Amino acid sequence: MAVTRREFIKIAGMMAGGGLGASGFLPPVPASEVSAGTAAEKAAASVAATCEMCHWACGVIAKVVDGKVVNLEGNPDHPCSRGKLCARGIGGMGLLYDPDRVKTPLIRTGKRGDGKYRKASWDEALTYIAEKMEAIKKTYGPEAICLFAVGSCSTHLMPLLAAFGSQNFGNPSFAQCRGARDIGFRLTYGETPGSPERLDLGRSRAIVLFGSHLGENIHNSQVQDFAEGIGRKAKLIVVDPRFSTAAGKAAYWLPIRPGTDMALMLAWMNILIREGLYDRDYVERYTVGFEELASQIGQYTPEWASKETDISADAIVQTAREIGKCRPSVCIHPGRHSSWYGNDVQRSRCMAILTAMLGAWGREGGFFLAARGSLRKAQGKEEYPIPEKKPLMEISPYPLAGKAGLTTGVTTVVRDATITGKPYPIKGWIVMGTNILRAMPNEKETMDAVNNLDLLVTAEIMPLDTAMVSDVVLPSASYLEQFEDIGILRGYRLGVTMGRPAVKPLYESWDGYRIARELAKRLDLAAYFPWETLEDKIKAQCKLWKIDYEVLSRKGYIAIEGTEAPFITEQNQPVFRTPSGKIEIYSGELEKLGFDPIPKYTPVEQPEEGRFRLLYGRSPAHSFTRTTNNPMLHELFRENEVWINAKKAAELGVRNGEYVVLVNQDGVRSNRVRARVTQRIRSDCVYMVHGFCSSSADLRNAYRKGADDQGLITRYAIDPICGTTGMRVNFVQVVREI
Question: What pTM did the predictor assign?
Fold first, then answer.
């Protein structure tokens, strides 16, 4: 590698220490104001790419010398990076040059899971897949094929599957991450908080985090804004059973009993109403249902909430007054991973309602409004066949499954149909951009589904767990080897992004568009992919939008001027796409579906004596299972630990740094994991970083390293409104390794 470990750590540390950017998607620093750099940097070619080391999709400038990427830095013109990268982003070179990459197409020769494959040509592999798909279609119908795809690749494979005749999609980004949050906000405001979220953190007077590990999950521009807000003396309230990195900056750390977040928020609402600390004018003008809320909220007193949350009544009152005093410049952060306890839509509704009571939606220091305007995407043939059978999401028991403005759905609905054959069989999975085996709860159920398939195809850069139980494995190009499809950022202003390849694809890797197009040819669906290459498609899109392709290709991002309208004024009134046309504190839509129109608190199960609730989170160095084998990032964080309260550790005889084993309520044992004994976590919880202990022996750095939290998540609570899976409902014992 051209960058040494010492240099890499130095670069990552510089990024972590800096980054006081403007808030929201405010204009980035102009490229002309960025230092020209050293003579060596001037000699290197610069290529604007789009990072896919996590889902933030930062703009990257790749420095290329003699056909090799030697450095990565943030694109100063791109609003998601603003000239900076996190450790993961810099580790993109580690992914590109990882010696363990999938190098050729592979076809399984042994039993599923035994790791026996033979090399195949692309033609043989794609012909094999096409023949299997046609056989499934003939026997079960085209709807029996399902796509699991995350990231830019989904823009190519979704049209392919729709053209084939199936609208069955599953996406852990919805079902296991932010689906419940987006549904909760859509029910309240008629739209989601956005991704990236439209938060004006830099100008907030108060910021509230419910289990949002800013600084550890590394959402680049948002962390920059967060630092800006803290630097301007914003009051930070962190509600978290664990003393996170963000909690170290907090004015108030509330170590809440897990599962009681709604109790705290309902008590806050009560105090805001009782003491007149809500934004009365805003509520009267823009909301419906406040009277109903006010009539029901009196039962949720600070004293009642104190017993539920294990937070003192005084602290509950004090923090409520703090956010009321700072209104409307308050950010109640909606979070991203919101699949916790099975009541997640209503918990997210509480966040949305609090935001409305504080008058913070569309106000400076709160949430800013989405940019105006829309851009029509260039497509091939648009007439997709109408499926004979309804998509699974339309006939699932969860009425709002997959309806947060996303063309995706609930992964467990697909998995259940694959196992049971009801309401109709699912016999083929195509997986790209997600390690579905390690993304969904209850790995045994996922394997039961996999073993009931006639076809499992995975297109992947690395031989991750799902790839190694697949029938066909296709070598996917990394973002540094391919064009990234044109994208639309609807933040402070409307913007258009794209990424160029920095180097030619290594080995036999193909980009997602080429995979989809070549497979479409073999399925007689080529008309849906009229462009020879993805670059041709991007050029057609630029022509449609009257954007200079050469400028976009060089800069990686172009802002559409005149589209910004971030805050409410008399001339810029908000539009709420709800049935009432207003913010719906009382949701008539939920009432019609048989759910509480105003959130009500229901206790969740708590661990019995001797057990701990299993909590999990992220590391600044890693994105799920995607990066734990990365040679550069592995050096920074080689294996996870389990956090355990110091008093409980002493009772168990567990010393800091020694290895322990976790055993969950169903008797599932973890791999050994090092104990981190600390006072920074409640005594009824343990905490682990997600994504470790890969089962793929082809990943030399990640194989069996650390402990797999997902393997311990055998139970899950399904949100009845949208079907997302609450995964913080598992309890473990800590056993000393003998």
Answer: 0.92
